[in-house]
């Protein structure tokens, strides 16, 4: 039985809290939104932990940011005050594009695409390089914090040094009867 307040669980939780506090401090120092940093942290864990999966997840968030900015720019170019029908049509088109991306190999993480969309639309920033750098930087910071916590946990709390170096953890082979 796993006890919530076992010493190992408390050490893991403390490590994660320290990483979150440090990432928040860096975000504030660079004037990045802390909430967007946490979206990057969440994105890191959407499909396995490890350097390779984390990089793919980050890429999917950045693609989602780009899709959101493109949709906003296109809709804004059509009208300053889009109608209900135009808004619904744009949401339909964006959702269609994002959900269609799930059929691509590797970069097919739908939750991470939507985290990118949410990040852009929640920010209320104008589409452009500035928005990409602010939100992409915060997402990168969150992804790095997520990787750091999983690497520290793997290295010091589970004894698995391969995961800490960024390698994906392969499934354990099942025992076969002789």
Provide structural commentary.
- The protein has helices spanning 7-29, 34-44, 51-78, 84-100, 110-123, 129-157, 161-164.
- It is an all-alpha fold and 178 residues long.
- It has one domain (35-164).
- The two termini are 31 Å apart.
Summarize the structure.
The protein is mainly alpha-helical and 178 residues long. It has one domain. The protein is 71% helix and 0% strand.
Shape estimate? elongated
Write the element-wise H/E pattern from the N-terminal end onward.
HHHHHHH
Q: What's the total number of strands?
A: 0
Gap from first CA to last CA: 31 Å
The chain-level structural class is: mainly alpha
Q: Main beta sheet: strand number and arrangement?
A: none
Number of helical segments? 7
Mean pLDDT: 86
Low-confidence stretches: 160-178
Supply Rg. Answer: 19 Å
Number of domains: 1
What secondary-structure arrangement, pairings included, does this model have?
Elements: H1 7-29, H2 34-44, H3 51-78, H4 84-100, H5 110-123, H6 129-157, H7 161-164
Helix pairs in contact: 1-6, 2-5, 2-6, 3-4, 3-5, 3-6
Name the features.
7 helices, mainly alpha, 178 residues, single chain
């Amino acid at each position: 039985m796993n006890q919530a307040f076992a010493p190992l669980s408390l050490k893991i939780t403390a490590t994660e809290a320290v990483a979150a506090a440090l990432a928040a401090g860096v975000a504030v120092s660079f004037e990045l939104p802390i909430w967007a940093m946490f979206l990057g942290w969440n994105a890191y864990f959407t499909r396995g932990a490890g350097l390779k999966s984390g990089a793919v997840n980050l890429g999917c968030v950045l693609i989602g940011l780009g899709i959101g900015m493109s949709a906003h720019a296109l809709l804004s170019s059509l009208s300053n005050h889009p109608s209900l029908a135009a808004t619904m049509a744009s949401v339909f088109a964006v959702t269609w594009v994002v959900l269609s991306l799930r059929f691509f190999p590797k970069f097919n993480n739908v939750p991470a695409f939507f985290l990118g969309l949410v990040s852009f639309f929640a920010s209320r920033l104008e589409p452009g390089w500035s928005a990409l750098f602010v939100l992409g930087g915060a997402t990168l910071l969150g992804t790095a914090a997520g990787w750091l916590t999983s690497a520290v946990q793997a290295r010091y709390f589970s004894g698995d040094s391969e995961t800490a170096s960024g390698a994906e953890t392969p499934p354990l082979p099942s025992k076969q009867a002789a």
